[in-house]
Amino acid sequence: MSRLVYVLNGPNLNLLGTREPEIYGSETLATVERQCLALAGDLALELRFHQSNREYELIDWIHEARGTAAGIVINPAAFTHTSVAILDALAAFEGPVIEVHMSNVHRREEFRRHSFVSGRAEGVIVGCGTQGYLFGLQRIARLIERT
Ligand code: DQA
User: Fold this and answer.
1) Residue 146 has what pLDDT?
2) How far is CA 25 from the centre of its chain?
3) Residue from 101, 106, 114, 133 carrying the catalytic annotation
4) For position 97, what pLDDT does the model report?
5) Mean pLDDT confidence for 88-104
6) How far is the CA of 146 from the centre of ligand 1 (A)?
7) With 90 as the cut, is the pLDDT of residue 147 above it?
8) Catalytic residue list contains 101
9) Catalytic position from the list 24, 50, 114, 133
């Protein structure tokens, strides 16, 4: 049974720490990756952590996860609200998907309330800052125990 989990990050998340820190906080994506790796060790998960500003790269990683990974934690960032292509790629993935947003998207602009991805996700974590990624990994670990 695979213990491999993909953690995927969409556009502009490479700027985490300096981008709108009043909304997204001051931790960098490299720090989030380190925290995820540390927790993955505790949960006996193997991790592939990626970020891209390009939709097709995220889709390619989701395809790569098919048949090999146990689950996906994804923050599609702005693609959340626009991308049927990412939804379709996730629909072709067999395992659990957890969608993460650091900010509480329901407390922001109206257009952030709609997610194409949520209809495919087993769980959605919003407004918990970078801790949301850790909750996502814990949830995947629990879900794959049951399969
Ligand atoms: C985000 C929320 C999105 O609406 C936004 O486009 C992002 C980040 C979040 O983590 O809160 O880039 O996904």
Assistant:
1) 66
2) 17
3) 101
4) 98
5) 98
6) 30
7) no
8) yes
9) 24
**Distance of CA 103 from the midpoint of ligand 1 (Å):** 7
Query: What is the reported pTM?
Result: 0.97
Q: How far is CA 84 from the centre of its chain?
A: 16
Alpha helices in 1-147 (DSSP H): 21-24, 29-42, 55-65, 84-91, 131-145
DSSP code, position 95: S
Q: Are 102 and 77 in contact (CB under 8 A)?
A: no
- 15 pLDDT above the threshold of 80: yes
pLDDT tens digit sequence for 17-54: 999 999 999 999 999 999 999 999 999 999 999 999 99
> Can you give the pLDDT at residue 23?
95
Residues with CB under 6 A from ligand 1: 12, 75, 77-78, 80, 101-103, 105, 112
Ligand 1 centroid distance, CA of 33 (Å)? 17
Considering the chain, what is the average pLDDT of its residues?
97
Pocket test for ligand 1, best of 9, 100, 105 (most atoms within 8 A of CB): 105
CATH number assigned to the domain comprising residue 77: 3.40.50.9100
Residue nearest to atom 13 of ligand 1 (CA): 77
Domain that holds residue 132: 4-146
